[in-house]
Task: structure prediction
Amino acid sequence: MSFGGHVIRTRKIGIMGGTFDPIHYGHLLAAEESFFALDLDEVIFVPTGKPPHKKTRRVSSTEDRYTMTLLATLDNPHFKVSRIEIDRNESSHTVDTLREMRHWYAPDSIQFFFITGLDAVLDITTWKEYTALPSLCKIVAVNRPGYQVGKLEQLPEIFKGNIVPLEIPLLSISSTEIRRRIESGKNVRYLMPELVERYIYKKGLYKRIGR
Ligand code: NAP
Result:
């Protein structure tokens, strides 16, 4: 972009969307790897508000998930956390979040890279106004070992050239596995930053009710 004769470089912003219940080293490594692999300027973590698609299990409160995300990212200067979905009172939809975030920046001055898990990306045709997403962002599909990147081929034509697969070996850690371990009293040390682990114990998160 040119402004008053000066060439202004388009800033590349990573947006790391997830439930983060809890956030763990897999997420942090995915953000850091994306930062370097895609030459991003910063990564903004966006914990989901009320996930529209998670009706089957109890999700920790938005404030707990936001606080854990903040604690986990404190020491990294190019990580930020946004309350944009947390503070929205209705369901969180990525298309609305990206449209709103676009207005934080001068027109045409940025490019968004929406980073999330491959399994979430494979469900993308169920998301609100999914056909609008390629015009708003590139999608970075972070892969766990053993998941099939080939399945991305089955997504509609509009996503061709729009999805960037990225494999992170450490992502074999999962939030679901961490919650199960805590519920059954197993060790979770070294799976997430220590501050997040302490917060979970202090707040009594993921314990089986009635024990
Ligand atoms: P999730 O349960 O948080 O994650 C789905 C899968 O992706 C899980 O395996 C998860 O691993 C992994 N994952 C999540 N965030 C990741 C990240 N940033 N980097 C690497 N792996 C990640 O996902 P979700 O609630 O389905 O949502 C993911 C994102 O998609 C959110 O931003 C959400 O708002 C968006 N989404 C939007 C719509 C919509 O617009 N209608 C619908 C669905 C999802 P862990 O279990 O270890 O976290």
